[in-house]
Amino acid sequence: MEPTFFDPSLFSGVLSGLHAVLSSSLCLLVLAGVFLGMTVGVLPGFGPPAAMALLFPLVYVLDPLPGISLLAGIFYGAKYGGAVTSILIGIPGEADAVATLFEGHPLALGGKARQALATATLASFAGGMSASLGMVLLAPVLSRVALVLGPSGRAAIMSGALLLVAVTSPGGFRRNLCMIFLGFVLALPGMDPVYGSARLTFGSWQLSGGVELTSLLLGFFGLGDVLDALSSKRVLSDTTPAAAVPALKKRSAALAALRGSLLGFAAGLVPCGAGVTASFASHALEKRLSRHPEQFGRGAWEGLAGPEASNNAAAMSSFAPLLLLGLPTNPIMAALLGALTIVGVVPGPMLPSEQPAFYWGLIFCLLLGNILLLFLGLGLAGFWAKLAEVPFRMLWPVIVVLCLVGSYVGADGLHGPVQCVFFGLLSLFLKRHGCSPAPLVLAFTLGPRLETYLMQVLLSTW
Questions:
Q1: How confident is the model at residue 207, as a pLDDT?
Q2: Which domain, by its residues, includes 268?
Q3: Based on the structure, what is the number of domains in the chain?
Q4: Contact between 99 and 283 (Cβ < 8 Å)
Q5: 292, 299 in Cβ contact below 8 A?
């Protein structure tokens, strides 16, 4: 008989997992994973996939729990690390941190860099802890619901997120629909996600792998902003005066983090681009609920706390379908699924009863990692905030170099910087015509998954 989640016999498994995590070496590995994740989240182009690839061989020499905990720490540590560059210099270290950029960077320009980083840290902690506790209580039930959704349900969730962003993003509904369409077009070159055949490469090997996500992000949100500032002959630090930044309202930011946590937890249970979808949807939701929506884009604290809580909650809750159903909801979870197979752990509903020490030990490691993330984030907030005091005339060459190097690393070739420059120029053109890049980025990220689910629905009806 399949055990229920509240079976008293599982208490022995909880105790064995707690005993396994009370090890100094395991705590140090979790700390190392979180710190490394924060570091790679800060570095554009060198994200958690690259870091996990470099450390993946460690699963062959470490025990299952320490090896998986180290890789997991890199994953959710990077979710916070991506917020650092988004807030300070307007470059998203991770795709999930794009929504954080919309409010975090104006706050930094207005002299609130340290407060913005602290708010992002607390929101990340709230989202991660809420999702971890929610996974303990509700994951078996909710992961089965996620499986019942099927391709049509997942496609509906993605379409709803795109529609919500089109309605609420600046620029107007028609322009946002055009940006969504352009995002879908940019996602078409490369390999067909359903049949695996090359399409729209125009005979160029540079497009054989499609448009590189890192190059697109760095072009739109890094190089594009620099070109916009230089072409208009203005200094970025003067565009958002400190007086224009709204005052921090702790209660509203806390409620936004709570809403973002719930939204991220639900999004992490289904394969729909969880972190990106949740962060954009959270930002749009906070703008819709706000009494002062005109503050969004100038540094709204709710717009910072909500997306940060949502993408960290999504990162945590994505472990539920991985462990209990063997269903990876994103590429990082797919890599972890391979690591689980290597160490002899079989994901499924019976995992808590068959390997309780590993299952509950990993849950406790996730909780421990969130606590360490809180202390590391708050402890380093002042250090990162010092970067905001650097004059723009000294900063923009560094941003350009980071964009070009990051795009080269992300694309593993010179076609990365070429794409980065192209998207930087495209960003400048679109901004001059009042278009917001948020719908384009979300459509580009979700396009292949949405196409796959729609094709599955169509093929099942034939």
A1: 63
A2: 12-461
A3: 1
A4: yes
A5: no
